[in-house]
Amino acid sequence: MARRTGADLAALWVNEGAASYRAILAGAVGAEGYEVVEAARIDARAHHGVGKSDQLDAQRIARTALPLEIKQLRRPRVSEGVRASLRVRISVREAMTGERTRAVNALTALVRVNDLGLDARKALTSVQFAEVSRWRARDEELVLAIARTEAIRFAKRIGELPSTSSWL
After folding, report:
1. CA atoms of 89 and 54, how far apart (whole Å)
2. What are the tens digits of pLDDT across the range 94-126?
3. 142-160 and 81-113 are packed helices; what angle lies between their axes, rounded to 10 degrees?
4. Number of domains in the chain
5. Which of 38, 54, 87, 90 has the smallest number of CB atoms closer than 10 Å to its CB?
6. Residue 162 DSSP SS3
7. pLDDT tens-digit profile of 78-98?
């Protein structure tokens, strides 16, 4: 940072994504004593067909920041404490919710296509998930044996992942 700015702490760092994917960079720059602000959003439609490169983006960001007074620029939120903790929890929740949805859909498709003795004409219930997770291997046709094994695995994974209502 000092090499790029000549160690001039008055240099202003306008960082696109300072509150999200570039938060670590913004924090490191700020910790060195530089002023860091969040770049304004750039309307991609206004530059459609003009081209895209890091240099063009930097020029566009500079053009939006230069005319503004320093107090008009957005300060990135600090990524620590409760805010950072909530960001982690929300990210994990979204990932787990997506994984659970995929497992439910896969299990539903599996039991609708293969006759495993489960009525899957309607949406499967938590009782049915628990029932399937307790199934054991049977002496049956190969395709059904494999389908049953995979159904058990999906049902067990669904049981491990929290349902959306348990996050409330």
Report:
1. 32
2. 999 999 999 999 999 999 999 999 999 999 999
3. 160
4. 2
5. 54
6. coil
7. 666 787 788 788 889 999 999
CB atoms closer than 10 angstroms to residue 22: 17
* Domain presence at residue 158: yes
Determine the angle formed by the axes of helices 81-113 and 126-133, rounding to 10 degrees: 70
Half-sphere exposure of 52 toward its Cβ, with a 13 Å CA cutoff?
8
Task: Output the DSSP codes for 7-70.
Answer: T-TT-EEEETTTTTTTHHHHHHHHHTT-EEEEPPP--GGGGTTT---HHHHHHHHHHHHTTS-G
**Alpha-carbon distance 70 to 72, whole Å?**
5
pLDDT digits (tens, 9 = 90+) for 47-73: 666 666 677 777 777 776 666 666 666
Domain that holds residue 102: 85-167
Tell me the whole-structure pTM to 2 decimals.
0.61
Residues 59 and 101 in one domain: no
